[in-house]
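Can anyone check this?
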Amino acid sequence: LMVLAVLAGAPGAAAQDLDGRAVAEKVDKQNRPKDEVGKFTMFIFSPRGEKRTRELTTWFKSGEGDDDKTLVRFESPADVKGTGLLTLEQGEKDEQWLYLPELRKSKKIAGASKSQSFMGTDFSNYDMRTEDLSGHDYKRLPDEKLGGRDCYVLEITPKSDDVKDETGYARRKSWVDKERFTTPKVEYYDKNGKLLKVATTDEWDQVQGLWRAKKIT
C-alpha cells in the first residue's frame, strides 16, 4: 500500500539530464516522511464478484540512510484482526516477519516466500516494503503523458536472480510524475516476462506537504 505512495528529494540536475537511477532516488526521497501512520480500507473482489472488506493500520519510521521500519496490521474483520507484517530494512538487507494472532507467534518470511500473496490480496509480501534501490537497475524510457500529466517512464529490473526470486518480477514499468515525483502507475511482469498486474493510484492530495494517494487499485 504505502510502497505505491512513495517518494523524492533535493534540487539537482535539470530534469532532462536525470537518468533512470536519479529519478528512482528522487521518488524514494522527496515525499519520504520521518514517521507516519496510515489508515486504509481494503476491498478484495473474487473472480465471481464477491467482495470482502478489511481495515488496516500502517506505521512507518525512517532511519539512517535507507534504513526503514514498516508495520502493517489488520484491524478487521475478526478472522484476520491482529495479523501483522513487519518489514525491517537495514542497508542492503531486509527482514520480514508475519505475526499470526491465533498461533501467538511470528514467522520469518524469506527468499521466494516474499513474492507470495500478502494475506490473499493482489499485493505480495515484497510489495509491502519501500523501493529496493540497491537491488535493481533503472532504465529511463521515453517520457509519456498519463492523465494529462508529464511523466518519466522507468524500466526496473532485478540485478540478480536472488532479487528476481524474492520479488517474483522479471521487471516493472513505472510512470513517475515529473512535478510531484509520485508513481501514478506501475506494471508488474512475472518471472517469464508476462504482464501479471497493474497498480494505479488516484486522488492525490498533500498531507503536511507530502503527496499521498487516497485510492490504490
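Reply from J.R.: I decoded it. The chain has two helices and twelve strands.
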